[in-house]
Amino acid sequence: MTTPNPITILQNGVTSILDGINNLIPVWTTTAANLDSTAQAVAQLASTAGQLQRVEVSVAQTTIPLPEEFRGVKDKAAYFILACNQYFTQTKITEDNIKIATALGLMKGDKASKWAENQLRLIQSNHADALTCWADFGAEFENHFGDRTPDTTATSKIKLLIQGTKPADEYNTDFNNLKIDTGWNKCALLDRYKTGLDPDLLMSIYRCDPMPVTLKEYQKKAELLDKKAKELKIQVAQGISARRFAKSYQPDATTYAHTARPAVGAPRPAPPAPNTVPVAAPRRDPDAMDVDHAPRRPPIT
Fold first, then answer.
1. Which residue ranges does the record assign to the Retrotransposon gag domain (predicted)?
2. 226 lies in a domain?
C-alpha cells in the first residue's frame, strides 16, 4: 500500500480552500453591495425624517401662537391656564418643567411678574415648596390670582348689567360671559336679559310675529332689530342733511357762466336801463282843502 505524499495532500487542501474562497467572493461582493444600498436608504430615511421634524416644528411655531400674557387680572386667571393647556396640547409639550417655564415667562406686570420671580427662585434652589408639577402649579396659580367665588361675582355683575348705549351684540357678549358662572336656569337668565335690554328695543321685539321664545332667539332678534334701527337713523340723518344743504345753498347759474372780456380800447357798453314800472299818481280828493289857494293873512306890523 502506497503512503500518500504529505506535500500532495497539502497542495490539494490549499487548492480546495482557494476554490472555496473564489466561490465566496461573488457572495461577499453582492452582500457588500446590498449593505451599502441599505445604509444609503437608512441615511436617506433619517434625513427625510429630520426634514419632516423640522418642518413640523417650523409649522407649529408659525401657526400656533403663544397664549396672551397674564398681567394679574383676576377675571383672566382661569382663562390663562386653559389657554396654556390648549397650547401645550397643540404643540405636544408634555414635560412639566417646560410647561411651568412657559407660563412663568408669560406673566407680566407688577403682581404677576413678582409671583413668577418668587416661584422661579424656589425652583432653582430646589426648595421644598417649589412647584415642579404642572397640575400643582395651575391649582396654586388659580388660588392666588383667580376668583374663589366666581358664581357670586358673576351674579353681582349680571344684576347690574344693562345695555344702555351699547350695541345689542356687545350687550349679548357681556351677558353670555357671565351667564355660565351664575348657575341660573334658563327662565331666570331670560328674565334678567330682558330687564337689562333697551326698553325701546324690547318693545320692538314684542311686536314681532312670531315672538322669540329662548334666550338665544331673543339675542338674535335684538341684534337684527338694533342693526336695522341704526341703519334707519343713518339714512334719515343723511336725508335731512341733504335737504337742508339744498335749501340753504342754491348757487346762481350766472355765477359760474363764462363771460367774454371786452377788447382793449373798445367802448364800454352802456349800463342797462333800470327796469322801472310806472306808478299812477293818486287821485285827488275833491273835498280836500287846498292849502295853496287859501288867502294869506297880512303880516303883523
1. 110-198
2. yes
